[in-house]
Amino acid sequence: MTAREIVQALTARGQTLAVAESLTGGLLSDAIVQVPGASRVFMGGIVAYDEGRKVSLLGVQPETLERYTAVSSQTALEMARGARQRLQTHWALSTTGYAGPDGDDVGLVYVALAGPDGEKALECRFAGSRQEIRNQAVQAALHLLTLE
Question: Which end of the chain is more exposed for a tag (fewer CB within 10 A), N or C?
């Protein structure tokens, strides 16, 4: 779904959305708030770039970070769950990954969704510049939320 479709669908359902962002650093929130009327459904976002902030602001378990790292489906799920709980929304999306340009796993991204129907995470492998990877992560997160 596009950000516009998400805002429209959530508005029609009377539901709300929050986000937890790491590698996207606010881009996902920005994509949503660019849509007129987003204020009716978007409650806010938490940018937790640092592992300590993932723990303190989103409730990611230190054991999860130690066992799976900050870039994992487990961490992405805990981030989404934490945003949903802390911002008291129906739905939450999260992003975590390696945008590069350096490192072994550049382009490895996890997006996750927590909502009333359960939780899911998706592993993605993107190519391109740092900005292109971050933009692709935003699109992947938005597509993860399907309201049918």
Answer: C
